[in-house]
Amino acid sequence: MYIRGDHAELAVGGSLDVRSAADARTVLHSALDEGAGDLVLDLGSLDALDATGLGVIMGAHRQAGRCGRRLVLRNVPPQMQRLLVATRLHRILAIEGGIGAHPL
């Protein structure tokens, strides 16, 4: 897993899973604490996501709210779109272009 970017936009690639969750959580929370405005999380290069990774994203969403910011997901892969719809998290998370921006 890699995360590149700054306090305004981060690109996540590889696998966001139980092995990478702690590092991802640290990077996301630091970016949220240090910046202002929306934090865009570009998931276009994300290959795999498990329940722990989804928990990291939800934790970042909550942290953003505490910081007066908003976490915005961009380029959400189709398999993650299906997961967000199945868990109804697409109703809670800000998703650029909404669900369905990519063919399911």
Could you explain how this protein is built, in words?
This protein has helices at residues 21-34, 51-66, 78-86; strands spanning 2-5, 9-16, 39-49, 71-74, 94-95. The chain is an alpha/beta fold. Strand 4, helix 3 (78-86) and strand 5 form a beta-alpha-beta unit. Helix 1 (21-34) runs parallel beside helix 2 (51-66). It comes from Streptomyces polyasparticus. Residues 1-104 form the STAS domain. This is Anti-sigma factor antagonist. It holds the Pfam family STAS_2.
Please name the defining characteristics of this protein.
five-stranded mixed β-sheet; 104 residues; globular; alpha/beta
State mean pLDDT (0 to 100 scale): 91
**Helix-residue proportion:** 25-40%
Rg, Å, rounded: 12 Å
The main β sheet shows up as: 5 strands, mixed
Measured between the Cα atoms of the first and last residue, the distance is 24 Å
Helix run count: 3
Q: Can you list the strand order of the major beta sheet?
A: 1-2-3-4-5
Helix/strand order = EEHEHEHE
Q: Tell me, what's the shape?
A: globular
| Unreliable residue stretches | none
Approximately how much beta-strand content do the residues carry?
25-35%
Tally of DSSP β-strands: 5
Backbone structural class = alpha/beta
